Structure prediction request, 246 residues.
Amino acid sequence: MPDLAWNKSCWDSDYDWSWRGEEWSEAWGGSEAQWFGCLYPRLHRFLPVENLLEIAPGFGRWTRYLLEYVQGRYTGVDLSLACVDYCKERFSGSSNTTFLVNDGLSLDSVEDGLFHLVFSFDSLVHANLDVHQVYIPQLLRKLSQNGVAFIHHSNWAKSGSTQGNVHHRAEDVSAAAYAQIVQEAGGHVILQECLNWGTEEKIDAFTLFCRADRSVLPETLLIENTDFMREASIIRAVQSGYTKIS
Ligand SMILES: C[S@@+](CC[C@H](N)C(=O)[O-])C[C@H]1O[C@@H](n2cnc3c(N)ncnc32)[C@H](O)[C@@H]1O
Prediction:
């Protein structure tokens, strides 16, 4: 199980960050194609955004794109000092960015009620349920009244996967368990997409949620997506070509 100690030692010292995480975008033909083909279509209704909080930016693979749409303040929080130091340097040209190191649990150093979008992708899939139990109530407090959180997390516990856990997914997390924590913390789940990340089974999920006092509370939409990697291969085969034009 990828607990906090595993995450800390993996990302803060053991992992070779020479490629800044770009290597994880190969199935999409690069991070630019993955952003515009996979992430932007899921997020575009919330962009541009005033203030954005990114949980676990790593070496800034998504920060680089997100900053194009931030009109106010960007805050990134990561448990790895190596990642935070790298992002501070990489994005030093942007005056509106703040990168903070945390213990993998506390968001006390982040202002409450400020963020119109909370984003986390390809990071909290390695976070066990106990981490989400601590993070979710805090994320709801960080959101502005009409803000939304888009969080990529594990669905391993529901996936029925019999293959080895080669992607180091948190094994005790399911989309349903995540939604239950959101509801118990006083939030509202807008959408959940369960998806087959690099596998046949739907080992991952995206959850989009908001505060229960948001002015519009859409009925919860559940999407079961077994074509996530097919989407990736189409993006790689077709769209990524456009990202190579100089
Ligand atoms: C696989 S990397 C992905 C980084 C980035 N999101 C990307 O897609 O390139 C995982 C990141 O999550 C961070 N991380 C893991 N668990 C965390 C936690 N509980 N709180 C904050 N950061 C965490 C790690 O330090 C690392 O930077």
